[in-house]
Amino acid sequence: MFNSKRARQMVNDEAQKYTFNAIDSFVGTYTNSQKNKARHELEIMDKKNTQNLIRQLDLIIGLRYMVSTNIDVSDGLFNGARSLNGLYILGAFKPPNEIKPDDNVNAEMNRLRQNPLVPKYQFLRVVPENVIQIVSHNTQSIRKHITTIVSDQVFSSSHIVTLQENITKSINGRPRAFGTINFCKLNIEPRIVDRFEIEKGNSNNHVEISDFKLDNRLTIINVYNNPSSSLELLKETLLEVKDYIDESENILILGDFNHELKLGNQLESLMLGTFGTSLFSPRESTTNARTVIDGVFGRIDDYNVEVFIYESYASHHKPLVIRVHEL
C-alpha cells in the first residue's frame, strides 16, 4: 500500500524506481496446459481475490510503503509493517508492568506449560507391533494431492493405503473420476497374494473394485462407486467376486460407496444379507458435506478391528484409518 499520487510526483522528479514481478510456483504435479491456464487466470484476477498481492510492484526510493497482507512474518513482513524491521511505535515507548508470580496471567502460562496440547490424531502416527494399519481415502485426484498424501505422517506410518477416485484414467483424452490404487510398505509386499481388479459400467455409471489378500488370512476389497452409479451395478460387480468373498475367513470391504450409510438402508442390507458383512466404521460424516458415504464393511474372526475417521487437508472426503489387531 502506498500513496500513488506521491509516487507519480517522485517519478517525475527522477527518483530511482525498481520494478518487481511476481513469480508463480506450483505444488504438486500438473500438465503444462494446466499450468498455463492457471497463470492466465492469475494474470486477469482482481487483486481483491489474491489478498491484495499484485503481479507487478514498483518500488521508489524514498516512498513510504505499508504491507497490507501477511507475507513472511519471520522477516517482519506482516500486515501493517512499514519497514523490514516490522511495526514501530511513534513517541516514547513505555514498557508494561512486570508480571508478578501471583498474577493470573502467570498462573495461566504455567498451566499451559504443564498441559501442552496433544494433536488429536497423534496416536495414529505410531503403529503398535501387533497391528496392521490401513488407510482408505478418496483422494479426488492423486496427482493433484500427492504432496499432501506423501507428507502425511498417518499415511506414511500405515502398512497399506487404499485410494479411490484418483483420476488416473481418461476417456477420449478427458480425465475421469476413475481409478482405485493400493499401496503397501516394502516389508508387507511379499505377504500380498491374489491381486486382481474388476471394472464395470461406463463413464457415468461406473464401479471399480481391486482385491488382494494379506497372508492368505485377510482379504481386502477396495471399492469406488461413481456418484451416478446405481446400487444394482455395485451389487452386480461385487457378485462377480462373491465366491472369493465367501471363501475368505476374514474380509474387509472398504472405500467410497457413494450411498448414504444409514441404518438398515439398501446398501447395508445388501452387504449383510448377500455377503455376510456388517458395518465397522462409525456412522459419522465422512465428507465436508456431512454425508456418510465412505465406509468399512467386514466379517472378521481372527482379528480385532478399529476404525477411525481422520482429516484431509486436500480432499472433501475424510480418510478412514483401520487398525487390525492380531488376537
How far apart lie the N and C ends? 65 Å
Q: What can be said about the biggest beta sheet?
A: 6 strands, mixed
Per CATH, the class of the largest domain reads: Alpha Beta
Radius of gyration: 28 Å
| Portion in beta strands | 25-35%
Number of H/I helices: 8
Task: Report the average pLDDT across residues.
Answer: 85
Helix fraction by DSSP (H/I, runs of at least 4): 10-25%
CATH topology of the largest domain: Deoxyribonuclease I, Chain A
CATH superfamily of the largest domain: Endonuclease/exonuclease/phosphatase
Helix-strand category: alpha+beta
Low-confidence stretches: none
Extended strand count: 15
Inertia-based shape: extended
| SSE series | HEHEHEHHEEEEEEEHHEHEEEE
How many domains would you count in the coordinates?
2
Strand order of the largest sheet: 8-9-10-11-13-12
Based on the coordinates given, report the CATH architecture of the largest domain.
4-Layer Sandwich
Protein name: Endonuclease/exonuclease/phosphatase domain-containing protein
Describe the structure.
The mean pLDDT is 85. This protein has two domains: 117 residues, no CATH class; 202 residues, Deoxyribonuclease I, Chain A. The chain has a six-stranded mixed sheet with strand order 8-9-10-11-13-12, with helices on one face. A five-stranded mixed sheet has the order 7-4-3-15-14. The chain has eight helices and 15 strands. A hairpin with a 2-residue loop joins strand 5 and strand 6. The chain is α+β, with helices and mostly antiparallel strands and 327 residues long. The radius of gyration is 28 Å and the shape is extended. This is Endonuclease/exonuclease/phosphatase domain-containing protein. InterPro entries: Endo/exonu/phosph_ase_sf.
